[in-house]
Amino acid sequence: MRSSSAATFGGPIGTLVRTYFHLKPFLPQRLRWAMRRVRTPGILKRSLDAWPILESAGEKPADWPGWPEGKRFAFVLTHDVESADGVENVRRLAEMELETGFCSSFNFIPAGAYPDPVELRSWLLSNGFEIGVHDLEHDGRLFESREGFRRKARKINRYLNDWGAVGFRSGFMLRRLEWLHELELLYDSSTFDTDPFEPQPVGTSTIFPFHIESTAGGYVELPYTLPQDSTLFLLLREQDSTIWKRKLDWIAEKGGLALVNIHPDYIDFSGGTPSRNRYPSRILRDFLDHVRNQYDSSYWNPLAKDLALWYASGSFPGDPSPPDHP
Question: Measured between alpha carbons, how far is 204 from 58 in angstroms, rounded to an integer?
Answer without folding.
Answer: 11
